[in-house]
UniProtKB/TrEMBL annotation:
This is TldD/PmbA family protein. GO terms for molecular function: metallopeptidase activity. The lineage of its organism: Bacteria, Bacillati, Bacillota, Bacilli, Bacillales. One of its GO terms (biological process) is proteolysis. InterPro entries: Metalloprtase-TldD/E_C, Metalloprtase-TldD/E_cen_dom, Metalloprtase-TldD/E_N, Peptidase_U62_metallo, TldD, TldD/PmbA_N, TldD/PmbA_sf. GO terms for cellular component: cytosol. The keyword Hydrolase applies. It holds the Pfam family PmbA_TldD_1st. Signal peptide: none annotated. Residues 226-458 form the Metalloprotease TldD/E C-terminal domain. Belongs to the peptidase U62 family. The keyword Hydrolase applies. Residues 112-219 form the Metalloprotease TldD/E central domain. Keywords: Hydrolase, Metalloprotease, Protease.
């Protein structure tokens, strides 16, 4: 992508005013986005984005610059611009590059760039037909197709020199059901760190029917009561609560500044013994998986909470300096336009021993959240509120009528302490996570869990 001699000269320029570490991140990205609505392709957008990011450290100071000019003169100009913000006397030399190959944890069989749009459209049309024909009340189906190929080169003044190819594919299905003046929406968005083979092997019947089923089911939902109840949260995307309310608090971005409720608590009990919380970027072909992070570190499995005890954090290079700790392979960024920082990959509560049937039958009265929707959280405190896309009442150990308008309100660390049953049906859900280094693909996951008490916000009757 760039020659070693050019990269060495750029890093040398970045260190010219006294920096003690310099890094270059070269990115060449291809994207394809198609949208199908009302049985026809409405949009088909393809693009290519190329750029270079240059970062310089001096102690606890970090400076970042980027450019879309990949000529040597333009790169040296960007490196010099970054260096000018650094004041120091120590001269750091660029170490000889040790070129290594990224481990292929996410094998790609079919590059989407090699697949004609007609094959992609065929997948979308089939998905549309399945969802549209689910029930007569389905009035609209929108199918969004996405694939991307991101080629990166990462080199730094410590001798790192590594290239990586990342290929991701995702299908998003939204169904709208209408009855009279009532309208409900269902959604499912599976994704993977895979090529076009992902779409060819995807169970379209399952995902399209689920999106439609949610919409149709919620047409008959009663207003959710409000109060404090035991809440059963199902697997897969149910893990979004702990991703937001706990996961971000375990990132060094917050911990290094003591702006996390988990800061300086290694070795403390933060959850019941039945809870282990893991971030694992090495799961083959999962949506949030990586071969290497965006600082050139190998992906790894990081155990954050083990049997209720806080064991570690997610750490990038710069915040690792602040904390006196090594990187955990967690430095990620949306693109060359962002400096990396500590981020999650596939973060989940580990599998427990209870069956879903046991968890429901052991709940006398409560709320069952089958599919979570969006929400918001204060990362400094862990306070959150999340909408539930599909919910049910639980009475005498059995599922009752569907409920609409359910909102879960609470505090992440406190909710973590109140998990009293963990299921054996671990599953992952694909999503996008936004933070200071941009929007990145992540998986959230868990088995079905029960929380002994969460404040539930409901809706007034119609």
């Amino acid at each position: 992508m760039l020659s070693k001699s050019v990269i060495e000269d750029v890093l040398t320029a970045a260190l010219s005013t006294g920096g003690d570490f310099a890094e270059i991140f070269v990115e060449d990205r291809f994207t394809n986005n198609l949208t199908l609505q009302s049985g026809r392709i409405e949009t088909a957008l393809s693009g290519r984005d190329f750029g270079v990011g240059i970062r310089v450290f001096k102690g606890f100071q970090s400076v970042y610059a980027y450019t879309t000019d990949f000529e040597k003169e333009g790169l040296l100009k960007a490196a010099t611009r970054a260096a000018q913000a650094i004041k120091g006397k120590t001269e750091t030399r660029v170490a000889p590059f040790i070129e290594r190959s990224a481990r292929i944890l996410n094998p790609i069989e079919i590059l989407p760039q090699d697949v004609e749009k007609a094959r992609k459209a065929a997948i979308m049309n089939k998905t549309y037909e399945i969802a549209k024909n689910y029930h007569s009340s389905i009035s609209q189906v929108t199918v969004r197709y996405m694939d991307e190929e991101q080629n990166v080169l990462i080199a730094n003044s410590e001798g790192t020199f590594i290239e990586d190819k990342r290929v991701r594919s995702r299908l998003a299905i939204q169904a709208v059901a209408v009855r009279g003046n009532r309208m409900e929406t269902g959604f499912y968005g599976p994704g993977a760190h895979q090529g076009f083979e992902f779409f060819e092997n995807l169970n379209l019947e399952h995902y399209a029917n689920e999106a439609a089923r949610i919409a149709v089911t919620m047409l008959d939902a009663a207003p959710c009561p409000s109060g404090k109840f035991p809440v059963i949260i199902d697997n897969e995307f149910g893990g979004v609560i702990f991703h937001e309310a706990c996961g971000h608090g375990l990132e060094a971005t917050a911990v290094a500044r003591d702006s996390s409720v988990f800061a300086n608590r290694i070795g403390e009990r933060v959850a019941p013994e039945i809870v282990s919380y893991i971030d694992d970027g090495t799961l083959p072909n999962e949506w949030g998986s990586i071969n290497i992070d965006d600082e050139g570190e190998n992906a790894r499995k990081n155990i954050l909470i083990e049997n209720g005890i806080l064991k570690g954090y997610l750490i990038d290079k710069f915040n690792g300096r602040r904390m006196g700790m090594e990187s955990t392979g967690s430095g990620r960024r949306e693109s060359f336009r962002f400096a990396p920082t500590s981020r999650m990959t596939n973060t989940y509560i580990a599998r427990g021993t209870s069956t879903p049937e046991e968890i429901i039958s052991n709940t006398e009265h409560g709320i069952y959240a089958k599919y979570m929707g969006g929400g918001q959280v204060n990362p400094a405190t862990g306070d959150y509120n999340f909408a539930v896309m599909e919910a049910y009442e639980v009475n005498n150990g059995k599922l009752g009528r569907p409920l609409k308008g359910a909102t879960l309100i609470g505090n992440g660390p406190k909710t973590l302490q109140q998990v009293d049953m963990v299921g054996n049906n671990l599953g992952h859900g694909a999503g996008m996570c936004g933070s200071q280094s941009g929007s990145i693909p992540v998986n959230v996951g868990q088995p079905m869990i029960r929380v002994s008490e969460i404040t539930v916000g409901g809706t007034k009757g119609e």
